[in-house]
Write a structure and sequence with these properties.
CATH superfamily of chain B: Ammonium transporter AmtB like domains
Distance between the termini of chain B: 39 Å
CATH architecture of chain A: 2-Layer Sandwich
Strand order of the largest sheet of chain A: 2-5-1-6
Number of helices of chain B: 16
Number of strands of chain B: 2
Shape of chain B: globular
Strand order of the largest sheet of chain B: 1-2
Structural class of chain B: mainly alpha
Helix content of chain B: 55-70%
Modified residues (O-UMP-tyrosine) (chain A): 51
Radius of gyration of chain B: 22 Å
Order of helices and strands of chain A: EHEEEEHE
Largest sheet of chain B: 2 strands, antiparallel
Largest interface: A-B, 10 and 18 residues
Number of domains of chain B: 1
CATH class of chain A: Alpha Beta
Family (chain A): Belongs to the P(II) protein family.
Shape of chain A: elongated
Number of helices of chain A: 2
Helix content of chain A: 10-25%
Strand content of chain A: 35-45%
Oligomer: heterodimer
Distance between the termini of chain A: 9 Å
Subunit structure (chain A): Homotrimer.
Radius of gyration of chain A: 17 Å
Pfam family, one (chain A): P-II
Number of strands of chain A: 6
Largest sheet of chain A: 4 strands, antiparallel
CATH class of chain B: Mainly Alpha
GO molecular function, one term (chain A): enzyme regulator activity
């Protein structure tokens, strides 16, 4: 089992969700986050004073899948979230030791 | 000793409870139209201070919005009480050596519903002037927001209102030396705006920059709130300027009209300035320019015509923009919300512009300015500006140094980082976490 964490553009969330749904993956956790990478940020001006905003708003999508689905998921997210410009985001993949469904007590892949 | 104190206390109470006895003035009849008009104007001017609270509140960080709003509201409470106890008489009591008013109206003695030299009740004139004192003191809070200790601010406003505002109001409006000299200030260019702006600058310099100023972004947290505050200020300003005619007259209509023109021109010229300078026309710039236009027309409102107001408004936008966008950055002082950059600079420009554009055809009680053939008014205006700046700056510096011997002027470094809303007032403006179910993890403690 793996956890896939994708930091993407806020405007790409719907496309990423659709792409994952097509694979049959419906469970996900989505959060609004801010961060910085290669993207340089933007400038805001208040009463003539310029401020450099380095931490930009992004969306973090977290999904849990069994090992055989990891590549397909990564491919689906990459295709859906890509604009080709700097700031498209990153995908992190973590090994996962266990998953427990609280309602039933199921564990492991049964709980995904 | 105890009985002596009791006697003094009883005498004070007796004076407080005495019904107001009107002083016989030059005019003895009350005009219902004038009275109702000034009642409405006084209400409009009152609304400016809560408007300023929102204007300022939106420009600070979310952790300081309540503390910033609080500064304006506490001013309304404290200064109102000072004004009726002794502030009014110091400003408008019988002249003592051209410097200060006498104590004839202490505790509003002799201030009743009879007219005193006009067509409105003396009490109404007193309360109209009270509203001016409120907004003046509240403006200062924009320079020291996000870092001044609340108790030190309270001490400051009590002393400043007594020792700076009241004498200044007397000099210009209460029969003092600037009035005798012939300097003009229709609705408070020197008394309200230069004095508060300069005071704010000195206070910002004495108290020091906010933590992180210049190294991390300190951004407005809610510009729509600031826009709402600016809208209330603009609305209230009609009472400020038109009401200063003290009658429902042609002069009031003229002042009302030039107020609108200058505000509009100020907003436009600021936006054009920043558009050229930074490439984007911002909302904050637009409303800042409107306020600058309102400030600049204030001293001239009852003395200049419509086209002069247009020129004054067009001039003030770029000048105030330059003050806050270039000069402030170059010199490096932290006037948090630009009380000096807009009120100090705009008020100075307005007072000087009065000396240029004043026209006797607008107001027979005024004078002609330089462009209408009389250069002497400009000199008088410059004397008024210089005296106000010097007096306000020096007195503010001394008052703050004096207070700092007893109370630290700014909050602790930790409290500043946490934000004054929680560290000073124990409140949170946007308690998101408590609305979320996770808030249940926090134990509710009620002590009654």
């Amino acid at each position: 089992m793996n956890k896939i964490e994708a930091i993407i553009r806020p405007g790409k969330l719907e496309e990423v969700k659709d792409a994952l749904n097509k694979l049959g993956i419906h469970g996900m956790t989505v959060s609004q986050v801010i961060g910085c990478g290669h993207q340089k940020g933007r400038t805001e001006v208040y009463r003539g004073a310029e401020y450099s905003i380095n931490l930009l708003p992004k969306v973090k999508v977290e999904i849990i899948v069994s090992k055989k689905w990891v590549d397909k998921c990564v491919e689906a997210i990459t295709t859906a979230a890509r604009s080709g410009e700097i700031g498209d985001g990153k995908i992190f993949i973590y090994p996962l030791s266990n998953v427990i469904r609280i309602r039933t007590g199921e564990q492991g892949e049964d709980a995904i | 000793m105890k009985s002596k104190l009791m006697t003094i206390l009883v005498l004070c109470l007796a004076t407080l409870l005495m019904p107001g006895v009107a002083v016989a003035g030059e005019t003895t009849t009350i005009d219902a139209g004038d009275t109702s008009f000034i009642l409405v104007c006084a209400s409009l001017v009152m609304l400016m201070t809560p408007g300023l609270a929102l204007f300022y509140g939106g420009m600070v960080r979310r952790k300081n919005v309540l503390s910033t709003i609080m500064l304006s509201f506490i001013v309304m409470s404290v200064v109102s009480i000072i004004w009726v106890l002794y502030g009014y008489t110091l400003a408008f009591g019988p002249d003592i050596k051209s410097f200060i008013g006498g104590l004839d109206h202490l505790f509003l003695k002799g201030v009743g519903v009879e007219p005193a030299g006009g067509t409105i009740p003396h009490l109404l004139f007193m309360v109209f002037q009270l509203m001016f004192a409120l907004i003046t003191v509240a403006i200062i809070s924009g320079s020291i927001a996000e870092r001044m200790r609340f108790s030190a601010f309270l001490a400051f406003i009590v002393i400043w209102t007594s020792l700076v505002y009241a004498p200044l109001a007397h000099w210009v409006w209460g029969g003092g030396w600037l009035m005798q000299l012939g300097a003009l200030d229709f609705a408070g260019g020197t008394v309200v705006h230069i004095s508060s702006g300069v005071t704010g600058l000195v206070a910002a310099l004495v108290i020091g920059k906010r933590k992180g100023y210049g190294s991390e972004p300190i951004l407005p947290h809610n510009l729509p709130m600031t826009v709402l505050g600016a809208a209330l200020l603009w609305f209230g300003w009609f009472g400020f300027n038109a009401g200063s005619a003290l009658s429902a007259s042609g002069l009031a209509v003229s002042a009302f009209t030039v107020t609108q023109i200058a505000a509009a021109a100020g907003g436009l010229s600021w936006v054009l300035s920043e558009w050229l300078h930074h490439g984007k026309p911002t909302v904050l710039g637009c409303i800042s320019g409107v306020v600058a236009g309102l400030v600049a027309i204030t001293p001239a409102a009852g003395f200049v015509g419509a086209m002069s107001a247009l020129v004054i408004g067009l001039m003030v936008g770029p000048i105030c923009y330059f003050a806050v966008a270039v000069i402030k950055t170059k010199i490096g002082y932290d006037d948090s919300l630009d009380a000096f950059g807009i009120h100090g600079v705009g008020g100075t420009l307005g007072a000087i512009a009065t000396g240029l554009f004043a026209n006797l055809s607008v107001n027979e009680a005024g004078a002609n300015g330089l462009f209408y053939g009389d250069a002497s008014l400009l000199l008088k205006q410059l004397i008024g500006v210089g005296a106000t700046i010097l007096f306000a700056a020096l007195a503010t510096f001394i008052i703050l140094k004096l207070i700092s011997y007893f109370i630290p002027l700014r909050v602790s470094s930790d409290d500043e980082v946490i934000g004054l809303d929680i560290s000073v007032h124990g409140e949170n403006a946007y308690a998101d976490s408590y609305d979320f179910p996770m808030g249940a993890a926090n134990k509710a403690v009620r002590t009654l």
